[in-house]
Specification:
- The chain is an alpha+beta fold.
- It contains four helices and two strands; from the N terminus they run H-E-H-E-H-H.
- The chain has helices at residues 9-31, 49-52, 78-91, 93-100, and strands spanning 36-46, 65-74.
- A two-stranded antiparallel ribbon has the order 1-2.
- The model has no long low-confidence stretch (mean pLDDT 92).
Length: 114
């Protein structure tokens, strides 16, 4: 039995954006010959549980804002390290989905009665 301490599905979204951007930074750094010594990401999101719990129709269900902060150390200038993050943001599929929206189709299939 669980301990009721695991992340919620909406918290996994924060993990997804951090993981996508971080892996992109690593890939882009390697392609550009930059050695990274340390990459640390912090992700925060503003969400009002009144919406998720259905306690208020005037509050949206999702995040109002998500913030991702990176601390990066490597063998490149601060400007070049910041450029790695920017290129990762431009190429991130998760960032794209979150900032441009994606059509989501939900279907229900019920098995035929036997």
């Amino acid at each position: 039995m669980g301990t009721n301490n695991g992340p919620t599905a909406v918290e996994f979204l924060l993990h997804a954006i951090a993981a996508c951007l971080t892996s992109g930074i690593g890939n882009i750094a390697a392609a550009r010959g930059v050695t990274l010594y340390r990459v640390r990401s912090t992700v925060e999101g503003d969400i009002d549980l009144m919406g998720i719990l259905g306690l208020s129709d005037s509050v949206r269900n999702g995040y109002r804002q998500i913030r991702v902060n990176f601390e990066i150390e490597g063998d490149a200038s601060p400007e070049r390290l910041a450029a790695l993050v920017e290129q990762s943001r431009k190429r991130s599929a998760v960032y794209d989905v979150l900032t441009n929206g994606t059509d989501v189709v939900v279907e229900v299939t019920t098995p035929s009665a036997a």
